[in-house]
Amino acid sequence: MSRIVSALPLLALAACSPAETEADLGTEVPVSEETFGSSTSGLTTANGGSLNGGSLNGGSLNGGSLNGGSLNGNDLSGFLIHVDYAGAAINGDSSLDWVRIEGTQFQAKQGDVLHTGTAFLGAWFYGTLGDGRRAKLRIADMRAAEAPNGDLTEYWVEYRDDDNVWHPLCRDSTGAAVWAYPVKGVYDYRRGVPTGGQHSDDPDHFTFACAGGAVQKCINLGYRPWASRDGVSLAAHHQACTRLIRADYCGDGTPHTQNGNRVNLYDKLGIQTDTERWFFEASWDAQGARCFSPLNRSHAGIPCYDSRLDLFCGLGLSPEQEEGILLRNETPTAGLTP
Questions:
Q1: For the whole model, what pTM was predicted?
Q2: What segments bear the compositional bias annotation Polar residues (predicted)?
């Protein structure tokens, strides 16, 4: 299978819409009684039809967003940085022994009872914004993801504002609300810093990865960070994919793509295969582009370009050159813009 990815407008990971985060999210008010969806048919779409595109907590990472909010510079004050396991509540009851994520399914232990699946309809969580404010979240609905990822579960996540009104957490570049996957660990949403765009394991927090963002998009491409292929963990492949999709060449969280750019990506594990005869661009690992081909774009303005330029990039002429390479990509034209 070969997948061609089209870039979306620049955005960043599990974040709220800037317009929606102006309200004070810190006031805790008991949630009103509402219908979240049938517990007997929880994998339904109570909130509308097919929601395609990027996420406001996840723009496109070959389009700039890690999880898709609009990140202006390093200002993360209005964005959801992570979500807590602690304080989660099912049916208003937070006396849970533990909460965890297996794949994209939530699980919680409460005494002798194991909660999973549709038991999390209406569940509450608490998240933290970049400026330290707390946001209350709820799972309003869930459904099976579209093929070929029908074994995964998507969640319709909402947050509550200061007026006790609930709003969709994830939005795309057009403002349309979208679904999300829960992903273990946290991401550094900053740009231009050594750890920018990097995933970190965190036993206390997780991320809601919104549709269209690089984190969610790379999961849908087959790079599921919790899974393995032929005994190889796909966690590093997923990280490399988020770098590639965002054109985060230098591995510092800074995207260098443009709206509408297309990219063909592939790997040695056969998750994505090369079926195009396009122009080779770069080889990738979890830290960004390992090397660039000088026969592709000029990459003007990319700080690490000169130090990673390699006439033989991607040719695999030696084991040393192949070591550590996780993904490769091509572009349809050898254009002059990144």
A1: 0.80
A2: 35-46
Query: Burial, 46: exposed, middle or buried (Cβ in 10 Å; 0-12, 13-18, 19+)?
Result: middle
- Summarised one tens digit per residue, pLDDT across range 143-182 is 999 999 999 999 999 999 888 999 999 988 788 899 999 9
The full set of domain ranges for the chain reads 8-257
- Judge contact between 197 and 242, C-beta under 8 A: yes
Is residue 55 within 8 Å of 216, Cβ to Cβ?
yes
CB atoms within 10 A of CB 227: 16
Q: For the stretch 7-35, what's the b/e string if a residue is b when 16 or more beta carbons lie within 10 angstroms of its beta carbon?
A: bbbbbbbbbbbbebbebebeeeeebeeee
Q: Give the C-alpha separation, 274 to 195, whole Å.
A: 30
Contact partners, residue 141, CB within 8 Å, separation at least 6: 36, 37, 42, 44, 45, 46, 47, 121, 155, 156
Of the candidates 330, 253, 332, 333, the residue with the CA atom closest to the CA atom of residue 288: 253
| pLDDT of res. 64 | 58
**How far apart are alpha carbons 331 and 70 in whole angstroms?**
26
Half-sphere exposure of 120 (CA within 13 A, CB side): 29
